[in-house]
Design brief:
The chain is of the alpha/beta class. The chain has one domain: UDP-N-acetylmuramoyl-L-alanine:D-glutamate ligase, CATH 3.40.1190. It has a nine-stranded mixed sheet, sandwiched between helices. A two-stranded antiparallel ribbon has the order 6-7. It starts with a strand and ends in a 24-residue tail after the last helix.
């Protein structure tokens, strides 16, 4: 039996900017996981600060990959579904899930931040992405995405009761376990993470950094998946991922370079290595 676990990653691929597959693949690899990319589109850079990127869309590619893998009896230990971007990719990802027997289906429903959808998404897309939630084992939205999916008004501060309410609404959509990142606190100096599993909510807060970088959510979910494949529970895996992202941000803040280029994840990858 092959000694390395395998994860299929349905996500976009950016050439420059340290986001999406550019972050995900090295993180999973250094954690001893085989990352198998299934790009939803190719971009010269990510979309946050470099101007309009060169984009190549890949309609039908997810479906063709799924059929090829099924023909060759290729299976995965986990599926990581990230940036989809189109209704076709949402539907194809659902069919991909149905064709697999993976234990964990992790969905990062990427479509917004800072209280609103990204410019290329709208309420219709939010409704469509809800269709994949019942097929997930874990969803990892940021607070904006969680609020929009739950149909509640976004606020810059949040109480524990509101987080519980949001998680309850996500469960009604079909979510099983939930990890919400970038959760605002009642105190402006703090930023947190909510972990909801088996009707139990746990909140973890840290000091808010003055600087933000693109791609940290992709790193977070990658580390979460890698650690869970080491048979660590969800709560401890989320803490491990949260701490690693903080390490990357703190390292990157030591250097004067444009934040649009993302965190210096390469300088911290060694922290993820565990000797078997």
């Amino acid at each position: 039996m092959k000694p390395v676990k395998r994860v299929a990653v349905i996500h976009d691929l950016c050439g420059v900017g340290k986001a999406a597959l550019t972050n995900i693949m090295p993180v999973l690899s250094v954690m001893g996981i085989e990352a198998c990319p299934i790009p939803t589109m190719l971009l010269s850079t990510h979309t946050g600060g470099f101007g309009p990127p060169e984009v190549v869309k890949l309609p039908g590619y997810i479906d063709r990959c799924s059929k090829h893998y099924e023909k060759n009896e290729i299976e995965f230990h986990s599926l990581f579904i990230g940036y989809l971007g189109t209704e076709e990719n949402i539907e194809a990802s659902i069919e991909f899930i149905k064709a697999q027997s993976a234990i964990n289906i992790i969905v990062d429903p990427i479509f917004g931040d800072n209280g609103k959808c990204y410019s290329n998404f709208n309420d219709d897309y939010v409704e469509k992405i809800k269709g994949i939630i019942p097929f997930s084992t874990i969803i990892t939205p940021n607070f904006t995405e969680a609020s929009l999916l739950a149909g509640v008004e976004y606020e810059d501060s949040c109480t524990e009761e509101k987080i519980k309410s949001i998680c309850g609404k996500l469960v009604k959509l079909g979510a099983s376990s939930i990890v919400i990142t970038s959760v605002p606190s009642e105190y402006s100096s703090l930023i947190g993470m909510a972990i909801y599993e088996e009707h139990e909510l746990k909140l973890i807060y840290k000091e808010r950094k003055n600087t933000s970088y693109p791609g940290t959510g992709d790193i977070f979910t990658s580390v979460l998946i890698g650690e869970m494949l080491r048979e660590t529970n969800l709560y401890e895996s989320a803490i491990y991922a949260h701490n690693f992202v903080s390490e990357c941000i703190e390292e990157s803040m030591k250097y004067d370079y444009p934040t649009k280029e993302g965190v210096l994840v390469e300088r911290k990858l060694s922290l993820l290595i565990k000797i078997a």
